[in-house]
Write a structure and sequence with these properties.
9 helices, globular, 25% strand, Purple Acid Phosphatase, chain A, domain 2, 9-stranded mixed sheet, alpha/beta
């Protein structure tokens, strides 16, 4: 693992991961055992914990995938310039959190869409200026921004056979010098948050809320924060295994439990023409974002959360 932020850190990456995993599971680190494991004093462990509680740590693994640790605000699907200004305002009002994750589709890139019917009021020149303004506002509030490029973010890259990358686009708006200093790009369709959640912007879509996130949790055996769907919600997934007792009777017990999110977005439904013009049975798009603070999470939205957003048990045999 390569340390990206901060520039120097004496705390071992293994301890960073262990600490933040413990925050999500409400387990308390045994400081004496940790001191023995890492060959240091109890006081050193206390100092490490205090530092991790207040700061952001970012690594890049051998595959180029980001691992972000600390309290964060998670947003996605802004689709600038077809976004809600109030969404940007609300993201900038979150206090005492220094790190932002943008899980795909910051841009809309309508000009480079493969669809022939393009939206005329979303040209790329306007888009560049809008995204520049948004990112500079975010940088006034957050020390770091970790970005997962989404399918809309990669439209220009695909049209140029990757001659122009997402990094080049950031350079177009004058942010080149901040890449790998305050702005960090993952090399895949996902990054890992606190080694507890896979934050993913998949290119697949399902019409039922949280169904794609549930499928990904089953596939990867991980907690999932799923962008791209434009839906907003949270579910629990329980994986069961079959066992046999001493009398030969079969029973089932919980093998694993995962939390999944549909992560909402910052788009403006009234500005996106294909949403207005097409009649579908897809679930309603909903604005919102997720705040992760001290291992706890909260969905922030002005919209009413429907019944599918409450905890649901899905019985899956391992």
């Amino acid at each position: 693992m390569k340390l990206l932020y901060p520039e120097h850190l004496v705390i071992p990456q293994e301890f960073v991961s262990m600490y933040w995993k413990s925050r999500h599971t409400d387990k308390i680190i045994n400081q004496q055992e940790a001191a023995e494991k890492f060959n240091c004093t109890d006081r050193t462990i206390r100092n490490w914990i205090q530092y991790l509680r207040d700061n952001t740590i970012i690594y890049r693994d051998g595959l180029g995938i980001l691992h972000v640790y600390g309290d964060v605000v998670h947003i996605c699907d802004v689709h600038a310039p077809l976004h809600k200004e109030k969404f940007i305002d609300d993201v900038c009002k979150v206090d005492r959190i220094k790190s932002l994750i943008i899980n795909g589709d910051l841009f809309n890139q309508e000009s480079f869409s493969f669809f022939l019917k393009k939206q005329k009021d979303a040209d790329f020149e306007e888009e560049l200026g809008t995204v520049e303004t948004i990112l500079k506002r975010f940088l006034e509030v957050y020390d770091t921004i970790s970005i997962v490029p989404g399918n809309h973010d990669e439209r220009l890259s695909k049209n140029t056979e990757w001659v122009i990358t997402f990094e080049h686009i950031l350079a177009m708006i004058g942010l080149k010098d901040l890449i790998n200093k305050r702005i960090f790009l993952t090399s895949a369709d996902h990054l890992f948050y606190n080694d507890t959640f896979r934050c993913v912007h998949p290119h697949k879509y399902r019409a039922k809320p949280c169904s794609l996130a549930v499928a990904l949790a089953k596939r990867f055996k991980e907690n999932i924060i799923c962008a791209h769907t434009h839906m907003l919600g949270k579910e629990k997934v329980f994986l069961y295994e079959k066992n046999t007792d001493f009398q030969g009777r079969e029973y089932e017990n919980v093998k694993a439990e995962y939390t999944v999110f549909d992560a909402g977005g910052g788009f403006d439904k009234d500005k996106i023409r294909y949403k207005i013009e097409n009649t579908t049975t897809h679930s309603e798009w909903r604005n919102g974002f997720i705040v992760f603070r001290d291992g706890k999470n909260e969905i922030i939205t002005d919209e009413k959360l429907l019944s599918y957003t409450v905890r649901v048990e899905e019985k899956i045999i391992w």
